[in-house]
Q: What sequence folds into this?
């Protein structure tokens, strides 16, 4: 058997192997990329503030209006990590 | 001597009765008019007062349809402010809890039409609009909320969340930075700031924000997962895999997150 066909066979096998590895790597990367795409979600929307008496929103007795104007997340009744989806 | 003692005992026994009598409400004064219009107005005011009490009690017991009936009737009576806007607001809450989000949004809008500075109505309309998927109106109201109460944590958070969902990442980033300027210990804002930064390709900054969120709340599985995604994008595969592994372990209460974290962990492992 001459060396030329053997060399061609080896070259073809190496090329096929390289392409196969590259294809697997690309598929894996594509799969990871697909899994990462849209994986990050925002935290939860704020919950509804509660009812208000007929006295209306003005004054210290109105807890929902005070929560709406509060400067800190806790006083504003914003979601905590355990509540986020 | 004996008579004095008896008098003392009698007075001591009577004292609680006197104190108890003081706790009774003053009776409603009888109307001092014969004018039919005035009498009708007095009756209407009384009905509004009573229906507010019944409606709020129903809401406290989770009887949303009963509450809605009371507030609907109050609105039909056309009460003056602040009762009008308050009745629309309370009706909106009853509808929202009853799953009628479109009707709830309409009531919060009506409350705002009567009282344009009603912050709680703005806050609730944004929350309902997000649930309805109406991000356009949510953003309009969030802009208005922020303008009316620039220091409000809820206004900043709401505007940031709506901007994130609209893919307006720069606005979201600015809003969460502002919120953290007021209170840097709020882990959720660090998380959302990181999400905005990751979307803008600022992976190092995002990783730093997720890490701060985890320092503040070590069991925050979604922040751990988010940290894994940015580490992966930075090519730090071993650290990313560890983050997904921990996120999978911490997210037993969230099956979707648990599954995604475990899949990403295993995808890295098999490569």
A:
């Amino acid at each position: 058997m001459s060396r030329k066909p053997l060399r061609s066979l080896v070259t073809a096998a190496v090329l096929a192997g390289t392409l196969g590895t590259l294809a697997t790597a690309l598929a894996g990367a594509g799969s990871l990329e697909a899994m990462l795409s849209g994986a990050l979600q925002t935290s939860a929307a704020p919950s509804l503030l509660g009812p208000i008496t007929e006295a209306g929103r003005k004054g210290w007795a109105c807890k929902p209006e005070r929560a709406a104007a509060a400067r800190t997340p806790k006083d504003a009744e914003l979601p905590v990590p355990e509540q986020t989806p | 001597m004996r008579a004095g003692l008896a008098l003392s005992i009698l007075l001591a026994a009577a004292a609680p009765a006197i104190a108890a009598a003081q706790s009774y409400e003053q009776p409603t004064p009888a109307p001092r008019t014969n004018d039919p219009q005035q009498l009708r107005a007095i009756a209407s005011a009384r009905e509004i007062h009573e229906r507010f009490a019944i409606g709020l009690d129903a809401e406290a017991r989770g009887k949303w349809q009963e509450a809605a009936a009371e507030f609907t009737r109050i609105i039909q009576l056309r009460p003056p402010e602040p009762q009008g806007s308050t009745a629309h607001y309370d009706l909106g809450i009853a509808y929202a809890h009853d799953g009628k989000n479109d009707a709830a949004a309409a009531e919060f809008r009506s409350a705002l039409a009567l009282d344009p500075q009603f912050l709680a109505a703005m806050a609730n309309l944004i929350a309902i609009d997000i649930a309805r998927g109406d991000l356009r109106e949510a953003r309009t109201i969030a802009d208005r909320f922020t303008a009316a109460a620039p220091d409000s944590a809820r206004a900043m958070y709401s505007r940031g969340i709506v901007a994130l969902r609209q893919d307006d990442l720069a606005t979201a980033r600015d809003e969460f930075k502002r919120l953290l300027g007021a209170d840097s210990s709020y882990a959720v804002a660090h998380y959302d700031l990181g999400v905005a930064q990751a979307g803008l390709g600022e992976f190092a900054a995002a990783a730093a924000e997720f890490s701060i969120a985890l320092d503040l709340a070590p069991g925050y599985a979604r922040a751990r997962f988010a940290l894994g995604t940015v580490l992966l994008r930075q090519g730090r595969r071993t650290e990313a895999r560890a983050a997904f592994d921990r996120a999978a372990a911490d997210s037993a209460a969230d099956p979707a997150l648990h599954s995604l974290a475990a899949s990403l962990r295993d995808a890295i492992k098999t490569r």
Observations:
- The first helix of chain A runs from residue 3 to 36.
- Chain A has a mean pLDDT of 79.
